[in-house]
């Protein structure tokens, strides 16, 4: 059995406790690796090594930092298939999707590498003669990164690459269910030439290792992706030390299907949006709000298509839907199906735990007659469960879309331009797709949500650099005399 250690100060080291935990294939329940479980002491060692590395790394010219990232991107590309297969074995999602996950990591690595030649500030005229003013971007310091299991390499790369190109050093804790891809990513960056101490990997439970990162006084900022409950707790705790916190949290993403929609297109999109990644995407389509005129036809055709999805091991190329990640997630999905039935929603497809293999499988499930205030229409289930909700008009549909605490992604299917623009204007979400499902972000555009989905930051795109840099404003006076700005002297003649 392969055993993986912590990566601190450029070396793979034992956990100070000597304890390990198991990494389990959710399709077969085989133990695929043993991981060293970090302690608070290990987190402190990681923070210390990130501190020691900061001065040199932050003073390395950004284009030189970019060269290391370019090398890493090429290595990720060369190893794409191998990494995708490893991810399917560790996390369960089907190969087509794990290839996409690795591709996201490749794309953000190239993108961030290129940012090394930009890291743009601004220049602007001064109020005074012989004075120059500008902004420059500075790294924040040691950053703590904490990531979830559903995108085992894409989300770590979305955080690590922009943080590195900006000159920060890192202490990183991946999800306990999926550390292997993070280990491979760290190995690749080290082989690409990342100096020791710049990126440190600690593994273990959120409640101990994650909490130690959140509370460590040497860490200046936390970037977290995960559930709302954990995010809220982190925000509260980290703010005591005035740490900068960026949160990318859950979703309950609506798809609106209008009576003028291209129905075949909408069904393709909903099928993929709801059951892709077994419904375990923060952007998954979990509510479809359908115009009442077309609901019967839409429902009939969607059920027929869903019945054809093949459940099984993601490593088999013919599988459409893989397992859910672990037993507690499986039980959570089953619990919500019961809640839906008790609330009076009509279960028209699926609803059962099944065992095509020993692992954690749940049938693709559809509820109809769902009213917007039911718990299955309000709370994030994070599994293959879809609620169909009827609406009589666009206004009503948008009202339903906005009736949840979340605001990550959203989508509308319509052939009408006015409907599209009303949706863009009125849906409370960080992302709106027109005639496409709510999943499938592109890395050069900002990603994030409103309301309980986050605290206003956006990852990827140019905003990724904002997340990991401080802006410094510079006034450069070359007049050789004291010149007072207008704040200090009454304005004379222009
Ligand atoms: P989670 O339970 O909040 O865990 C996320 C990460 O936080 C894991 O690494 C976890 O460690 C760690 N953690 C748990 N408790 C902690 C604590 N007290 N202090 C510090 N770290 C702690 O979420 P999840 O179940 O892994 O992921 C699913 C959630 O992520 C869903 O709500 C989904 O919508 C959201 N998500 C959001 C986005 C987005 O960009 N908006 C993207 C993907 C997923 P362990 O693994 O050891 O528990």
Largest sheet: 7 strands, mixed
Portion in helices: 25-40%
Average pLDDT for all residues: 97
Low-confidence stretches: none
Output the CATH topology of the largest domain: Aldehyde Dehydrogenase, Chain A, domain 1
Report the count of strand segments.
Answer: 22
Find the structural class using helix and strand composition: alpha/beta
Bound compounds, each kind once, are: NADP nicotinamide-adenine-dinucleotide phosphate
* Number of structural units classed as domains: 2
Strand content: 15-25%
Globular, elongated, flat, extended or rod-shaped: what is the shape?
globular
Strand order of the largest sheet: 15-18-19-14-13-20-21
User: CATH homologous superfamily of the largest domain?
Assistant: Aldehyde Dehydrogenase, Chain A, domain 1
CATH architecture of the largest domain: 3-Layer(aba) Sandwich
End-to-end separation in angstroms reads 77 Å
How many H/I helices? 15
Radius of gyration: 24 Å
The first-level CATH class of the largest domain is given as Alpha Beta
InterPro entries: Ald_DH/histidinol_DH, Ald_DH_C, Ald_DH_CS_CYS, Ald_DH_CS_GLU, Ald_DH_N, Aldehyde_DH_dom
Pfam family, one: Aldedh
Domain Aldehyde dehydrogenase: 12-474
Active site: 248
């Amino acid at each position: 059995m392969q055993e993986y250690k912590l990566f601190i100060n450029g070396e793979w080291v034992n956990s100070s406790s000597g304890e390990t935990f198991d990494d389990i294939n959710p399709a077969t329940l085989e133990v695929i690796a043993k991981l060293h479980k970090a302690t608070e002491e290990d987190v402190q060692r990681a923070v210390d090594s990130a501190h020691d590395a900061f001065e040199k790394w932050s003073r390395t010219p950004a284009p030189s930092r970019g060269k290391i990232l370019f090398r890493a991107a090429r290595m990720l590309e060369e190893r794409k298939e191998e990494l995708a297969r490893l991810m399917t074995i560790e996390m369960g999602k089907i190969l087509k999707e794990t290839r996409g996950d690795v591709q996201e990591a490749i794309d953000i690595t190239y993108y961030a590498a290129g940012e090394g030649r930009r890291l743009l500030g601004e220049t602007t005229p001064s109020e005074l003669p012989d004075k120059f003013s500008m902004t420059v971007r500075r790294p924040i310091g040691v950053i703590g990164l904490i990531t979830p299991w559903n995108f085992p390499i894409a989300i770590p790369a979305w955080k690590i690459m922009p943080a590195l190109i900006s000159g920060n050093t890192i202490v990183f804790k991946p999800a306990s269910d999926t550390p292997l891809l993070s280990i491979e990513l760290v190995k690749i960056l080290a082989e690409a030439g990342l100096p020791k101490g710049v990126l440190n990997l600690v593994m273990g439970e959120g409640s101990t290792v994650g909490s130690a990162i959140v509370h460590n006084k040497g860490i200046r900022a936390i970037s977290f992706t995960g559930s709302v409950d954990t995010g809220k707790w982190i925000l509260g705790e980290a703010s005591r030390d005035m740490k900068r916190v960026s949160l990318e949290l859950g979703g309950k993403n609506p798809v609106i299907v209008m009576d003028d929609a291209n129905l075949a297109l909408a069904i393709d999109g909903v099928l993929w949006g709801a059951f892709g990644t077994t419904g375990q995407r923060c952007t998954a389509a979990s509510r479809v709000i359908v115009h009442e005129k077309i609901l019967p036809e839409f429902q009939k055709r969607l059920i027929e298509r869903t019945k054809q999805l093949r459940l099984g091991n993601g490593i088999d190329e013919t599988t459409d839907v893989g397992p859910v990640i672990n037993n507690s997630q499986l039980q959570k999905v089953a619990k919500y199906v019961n809640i839906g039935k008790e609330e009076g929603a009509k279960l028209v497809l699926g609803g059962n735990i099944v065992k095509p293999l020993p692992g954690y499988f749940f049938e693709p499930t559809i509820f109809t007659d769902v009213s917007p205030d039911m718990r299955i229409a309000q709370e994030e289930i994070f599994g293959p469960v879809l609620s169909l909700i009827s609406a009589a008009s666009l206004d009503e549909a948008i009202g339903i879309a906005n009736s949840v605490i979340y605001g990550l992604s959203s989508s509308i299917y319509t052939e009408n331009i006015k409907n599209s623009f009303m949706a863009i204007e009125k849906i409370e979400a960080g992302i709106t797709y027109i005639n496409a499902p709510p999943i499938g972000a592109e890395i050069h555009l900002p990603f994030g949500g409103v309301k309980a989905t986050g605290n206003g930051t956006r990852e990827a795109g140019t905003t990724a650099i904002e997340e990991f840099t401080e802006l410094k404003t510079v006034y450069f006076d070359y007049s050789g005399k004291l010149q007072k700005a207008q704040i200090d002297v009454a304005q004379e003649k222009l």
